[in-house]
Amino acid sequence: MFRFQCSQCEAWHEELPRIGFAMPDNLRNIPAGLRDGRAWWSDDVCVIDNRQFYARARLEIPVSGSGEPFVWDMWVSLSEKSFYDYLGAVDRGRAGGPYFSWLANVLPGYPTPIGLKSQMRPQASGTKPMIVLERSRHPLSVDFHEGMPQQRAEALCEFAQHRAILPH
Ligand SMILES: [Zn+2]
């Protein structure tokens, strides 16, 4: 079980936070007043300028020494073909994919994931697609394949609970 004494409030925290992103970083970077003119989006999909295609998915990173994963509720970027294939599959109640994808959010505590390849794997209806990261030396990929060190999970927990500064 995940449990540690917080350096910010000294309480024992026993739950892994879930960090979520309401939209892809590229949409958030568009000034709010211009978004409607350039993009359309729902809770699960987003298109910007008719040429950037995104879907919401779930990245689970195992935490070393804990039976639970650290869950990121985030966005990936897909090709136009993959995006419409995914939408069509959802309409027909199928899973579709897997699809090649790029991560579309910078995760706190990690270097930018630009260039980190991934696969989005849709699941049976009702659950979010899962993200599988290609093996690489990127710290996020290392954590995905080998487990997130307990210390990083604790730092992320303090960040989520108290906006604590994350070590790099
Ligand atoms: Zn705390």
Model description:
- It contains five helices and ten strands.
- Strand 5 and strand 6 form a beta hairpin.
- The mean pLDDT is 94.
- The two termini are 25 Å apart.
- The longest helix has 13 residues.
- It has one domain.
- Strands 3, 4, 5, 6, 7, 8, 9 and 10 form an eight-stranded mixed beta sheet that branches. The protein has a two-stranded antiparallel ribbon with strand order 1-2.
- It is an alpha+beta fold and 168 residues long.
- Bound molecules: zinc ion (ZN).
- Zinc ion (ZN) binds next to helix 5.
Structural class by SSE content:
alpha+beta
Helix content: 25-40%
* Separation, N- and C-terminal Cα atoms: 25 Å
Question: Quick one: biggest sheet?
Answer: 8 strands, mixed
**SSE string:** EEEHHEEEEHEEEHH
Number of DSSP-assigned strands: 10
Q: Which regions have little confidence, pLDDT < 50, spanning 5+ residues?
A: none
Approximate strand percentage: 25-35%
Backbone shape: globular
Give the bound compounds.
Answer: zinc ion
Alpha carbon gyration radius: 17 Å
Mean pLDDT: 94
Number of spatially distinct domains: 1
- What is the tally of helical segments? 5
Give a brief rundown of this model:
The chain contains five helices and ten strands. It is an alpha+beta fold. The protein has one domain.
Write the layout of secondary structure elements.
Elements: E1 4-5, E2 12-13, E3 18-20, H1 25-28, H2 32-38, E4 39-41, E5 45-48, E6 52-62, E7 69-78, H3 80-91, E8 99-103, E9 117-121, E10 130-133, H4 139-146, H5 150-162
Parallel strand pairs: 3-7
Antiparallel strand pairs: 1-2, 4-5, 5-6, 6-7, 7-8, 8-9, 9-10
